[in-house]
Amino acid sequence: MACSSCTAGKYLTNAATSVGSFACTDCGAGQYSGVAAATCSNCVAGRYLTNSAIGVEFSACSICAAGKYSGSPASTVCTICPAGKYNADQAMDASLHVSCQLCSPGSYLADNGVDVIRHNSADDCIQCGPGSYSNAEETQMASCEECPDGLNSPAGASFCSSCPPEYNCNDGKTAACDAGTYSNGDTCPGGTDHSPCRQGSYQPDPSQSTCLSCPPGKYQNVDGQDACVDCPSGYFCPERTVIPIACGSAALYCPLNSGIVQAIHEGYYSTGGTEITRHDEAICEAGFACNGGVKFSCGSNGQYADDLGLSGCKAAPAGKKPTANRQSIESCELGTASTGAQDECTPCNGDGQYADELGLSACKTAPAGKTPTANRQSIESCEAGTYFVGGANECSACGPGERSEEGAAGCSTCAVCEPGKYKISDCSSDTPTQCGDCLKGKASMGGEAANCTSCQNGKFSDVERASVCKTAPSGTRPTEGHDDFEPCCSSCEQHMEYNEANNTCVCQESFILDDGKCTCEAGKTFINGKCDSCENGRYKTNNSTLSCDICDTKVIKGALETINGTDKTSAASCACRKGKYQDPRDTRKTPEGSCKNCMDLNFPEGVNCDDTIGLTLETLPLKDGYWRSSINSDNIEVCEVNASCTRDPSAPPKILCAEGHTGPICSVCSKGYNKNAVGVCKLCSSAGVSIGFYALCGVLGTAALYFVLRKIFGKEKLTIANATEQFQTASSDSKHWSKRLKTKAKILTSFYQIVSKLPNTLAVEYPAIYRGFTTAVNSVFNFNAIGLVSVGCILPRSMYSFYGSFLVTTITPIALSLLLLWATALQVRNLDPYAANQLTSSRFGLFYGFTYLIFASTSTMAFTTFLCTTYGDDKTEYLIAGRSIDCNSDFHKKFELLSLVMILVYPIGITTLYSYQLLKHKDAIKDAENRDTNPNIQHIVFLWRDYRPEFWWFEIYECFRRLSFTGMLVFFTPGSAPQLCFAIILALASSLMYAYNQPFEKSEENALVQISTVSIFLTLLAGIMITLKDKLVEEYDDKFGVLLVIVNTLVFAMIGVSVLFKPIFKFVAKFNQRHIHDAPLKSMGPEVAYSVDLFIDYFKRLIESDTNEAGWKPLDVKDWGGKKKKVKEWLEATGAKADWRCADGNGPIDQARIKCVVDADVETMLSEIESIQSRHELSAGSFLYVINKGKGWRQIYRAIKLPWPLSQRDMVYTEHMQREQNGDVLICSRSSKELSDSTNALSVKFGRMRADMTVAGYRLRDVGGGKTEIVCIIDVDLGGSFAIGYLHRHMAQSYLKGVVDMHRKFAEKSKREGGVSEPPPPLPFLPKVLAAATNPMLSGLRNTDSSVDDGLNIEMGRMIKKKASKSDGDENNIVVL
């Protein structure tokens, strides 16, 4: 029998009537099936099927119509959407009919599944009216709810909002507030009603949300008012006043409508009202003063008030008194005086007092010979025969034998007669001695002589009042009356004498015969009866016996000398004294000028005035190193280079410069000359090249040779591509050797760019050897190619002048940058994006490095264009950088415009570029863990790689620092005190900045930059000494220059030391004493280093090992050092046994161990050690900082201060403590690599070298009898100079001895006192700090309550607190000291 398939709408089931028979059964409602179906399927949600007979396929399930939905499978009918919902889909998408959509907020749909037509569109949702709302949470969109009282809403609102200001809301309605009331929904209860404005406020308009405060000058003390009331007089009303406030005091007043009190003006007083309600003010009248609003009269002590509005009475000045009404003052009358502040003038009644003028401040005292009149208003002279010496009111009479003239201050003894006179009568008290004159032919010596004596015996007297008679000259005789003389035989004329041999008259000696008469020749005058040369400072141009003319009044004012060797016959003989010179320009008093003091010159030390008489302005001799604009100028200037102003002494005065020099201060080379390294113009045939040229050639030649050899013989042929790749590799690798050199090169470049500019910028005459050094340095580090060779002998002047240098310096970098950009653009065309990005980053690195190199030189050049000054009397403004250039020329003005552009490009542009890049990427740069691999900041790696992450901004500061030293200083007057002071301040600030921040990643670089800043400071200090003409500098000029060169090369020397330091110590270490053994227990492997359990097991094994297991070598007496006898005695007394070894089995000693027994139990020793470990400060500069701790462990940062000149050390280690089952206590430590890496920046900041603790610690064991055996092991690498085996071994010896002594002392003191012991004195020599620093057992050397340096706490907490807080230890695991 053939099988039949079930038709659609049925499914196959076992027939219940017979075995093995099957039947087709109808699908249920909401189900469907196809032909030969074994089961029926449900219609999905969103579809329905009313009868399975018609549902043969899935398509038979119908989609619900619009307005309906079916929410479950096998639905036989669709349901009309409920209230608040609709379905707009027209039976197109079943998924949209699984449910109905809610009406949008602010609308509703009231029909609840009754009328499908009301649910088939969104338009069926009706918008809520004003004052009502709907939303799904509260209304389910079936209806709109009315807003509660105090709230309202617009049409279509989904929620109600506060009643709007100015209105009240009730029953869904909104009404405006009345005048005098307000509503804002917040202050009114629910916004349901308006409220009256309170006292102090008002509201004139209706529908307002707030009340207005009563303005100043108004008040309101009633609620609900639409206006405020005027503030009454005598009161004031601030804003929102309820009750007017009384003005307060007499010093205040309040007019009508006062909002504030008014202070009474100075010189006014208050009026009206009571004392506290004044409402007006009035000006103070004359005779009164007003202060604090109160008027008072001027009544005593000479007080008066002569004007209106005075705040205080005036005091009558000296010589004055107030009038009766106190409104003015008047002068004291004659005979009175006043010292001031007096009501009446004081009469001059004292001895000898009088007042002969009105308004005297003090009485006068009658002078000697005068007495006051009776009314004391004048004085009168004492009569003859009386005298007055002062201090009395009457004249005193002269005594016997004394006399006085009228008005005499004292009496005198009667005088004797003078020589040439004789006494006629004696004197009386009022009459002098009467004397008579001797007549010609007589003479008298005066005195008491009663008559004159007649001349006799060849003598004569030809004048009256002669004291002695004269002897007649040879060949003459007295006349008969002895009143003259006459020739014996013949009469000779004046100045002649009779010559008996010739029987003629001849001129006397020193006279010449001129026109028949004897006279003095020119240059001589008649003095003491003969002709003699004119006195110094005089001259005479003719033959005569007249006096010589005075140079000071006739020729040169101040000329008190005549030139030696001249005959004084003309005005040309007049000369100025030594130390002075003749200035012919000053003809105000004399025609040939005047003598001026050389010390009054602006640079008196620049002239030689002290040794020569008769110097003139033209012949004024300048010293070497000084210059003036012409021989007619007295304005002296200091030359920039001493040798340029060294003149040949035989050269004429008009030669102002040394050979080959010209221009202002001789700083311009003549044609055919060129400046050498020290700025001296030399003939082109001898100028040569500078040291910098040879240095640069050497560097470039070495680099060229390297690249040529690499290209020919290198394993990897050098090409542009792989050279770029290698450069990029070096830039991205922070440990690459080029990185170390690059940082040092940056510091070196910055330092020498600053130093090389100082001599010219400061205009200081540094020693020649130092100037030569800075010139060479400037040529190399400022890339001054023109300064490397004698370009003045090769190129036209226009090319090597300032303008040529300016163009080369400023345009070349731009051209090279564009060339680099062009070359990069060509190369990236054919590269994939990654390679192109790598190449671009490396080229940006080149670009930033290039901008760093040229920043200082280009900025200085741009600023220098504006630095001009005048020299001497030349009014032309010359460019300081090129003194042949007139700054006011049109050509230079064009260059100043170009300089402004270059200032925008270089100092401003480069600084802005750096700032923009660093600010943009600062977060990435500060990410210390990822910044070296972050591709987004590799193109600016040059700007941040040298600095620690937190100093991402430091290159910006460096720009400003370099710019200040090289550019900003040019705006001060060169060599002036402000410029030097500003430079010194900059140097000090820079030094402090670097010392405090330690911005570089490596301590050696921080030290390097600090040395450079100190060198700059010392160079500036030397400049001040030179400017002040310090004797030390002048006496040791060359040595001083050498010293400056040494100071400036310290930076370069330090770089050499830092580069060679490690190779030198590696080389020295090869000669260290070696320890060789083949014992099985050697140094820890990597598996031990990273496991705490294995580390502790290794430490235990090392503690208990012997020579066979670990290769220990016992220390004998000679190994301990020092005196053998004392060492032997110490070993016997302590019973200590020590040994050491090389942990690797072949190398220098690096591990040491010592064993001793102390007389104290384990617990006592453990408590002693723990008490020490609780101390934070170990010694000055040495301390520990507990970073983290947990059960049986802690992490420690330890700083170690070493003696100078060793670098300070620090280390970070983890300390473990474990108590064994047998009672042993183990305390062992080792360096923590993770924390060591995270705290490296701390080492750099404080200038410390990181030490490495491989293993250190000790074991305490009870050996019975209350005694403890202590075994201590130390293996710490201090690095640096400790690579020298001798130092390391010496440290170990002293340390081991210190361990034993310390614990023996602890034990003895603990046993004796039962308390915590003090540690012993510090160990001698170097290990006294190393002993405490390299082992946790010696955590303190002295008991101290001092805390760790606050700066360290802050720095440490900031750097490692985050890491430490992640530990699995105790919750309170951060120890802040």
UniProtKB/TrEMBL annotation:
<feature type="transmembrane region" description="Helical">
    <location>
        <begin position="1008"/>
        <end position="1028"/>
    </location>
</feature>
<feature type="transmembrane region" description="Helical">
    <location>
        <begin position="845"/>
        <end position="868"/>
    </location>
</feature>
<feature type="transmembrane region" description="Helical">
    <location>
        <begin position="1040"/>
        <end position="1061"/>
    </location>
</feature>
<protein>
    <recommendedName>
        <fullName>Tyrosine-protein kinase ephrin type A/B receptor-like domain-containing protein</fullName>
    </recommendedName>
</protein>
<dbReference type="InterPro" id="IPR002913">
    <property type="entry name" value="START_lipid-bd_dom"/>
</dbReference>
<feature type="domain" description="START">
    <location>
        <begin position="1137"/>
        <end position="1311"/>
    </location>
</feature>
<feature type="disulfide bond">
    <location>
        <begin position="417"/>
        <end position="435"/>
    </location>
</feature>
<keyword id="KW-1015">Disulfide bond</keyword>
<dbReference type="InterPro" id="IPR001368">
    <property type="entry name" value="TNFR/NGFR_Cys_rich_reg"/>
</dbReference>
<keyword id="KW-0472">Membrane</keyword>
<dbReference type="GO" id="GO:0008289">
    <property type="term" value="F:lipid binding"/>
</dbReference>
<feature type="transmembrane region" description="Helical">
    <location>
        <begin position="977"/>
        <end position="996"/>
    </location>
</feature>
<feature type="repeat" description="TNFR-Cys">
    <location>
        <begin position="381"/>
        <end position="435"/>
    </location>
</feature>
<feature type="transmembrane region" description="Helical">
    <location>
        <begin position="897"/>
        <end position="916"/>
    </location>
</feature>
<dbReference type="Pfam" id="PF01852">
    <property type="entry name" value="START"/>
</dbReference>
<keyword id="KW-0812">Transmembrane</keyword>
<keyword id="KW-1133">Transmembrane helix</keyword>
<dbReference type="InterPro" id="IPR009030">
    <property type="entry name" value="Growth_fac_rcpt_cys_sf"/>
</dbReference>
<feature type="domain" description="TNFR-Cys">
    <location>
        <begin position="381"/>
        <end position="435"/>
    </location>
</feature>
<feature type="transmembrane region" description="Helical">
    <location>
        <begin position="802"/>
        <end position="825"/>
    </location>
</feature>
<feature type="transmembrane region" description="Helical">
    <location>
        <begin position="691"/>
        <end position="709"/>
    </location>
</feature>
<feature type="disulfide bond">
    <location>
        <begin position="414"/>
        <end position="427"/>
    </location>
</feature>
<dbReference type="InterPro" id="IPR023393">
    <property type="entry name" value="START-like_dom_sf"/>
</dbReference>
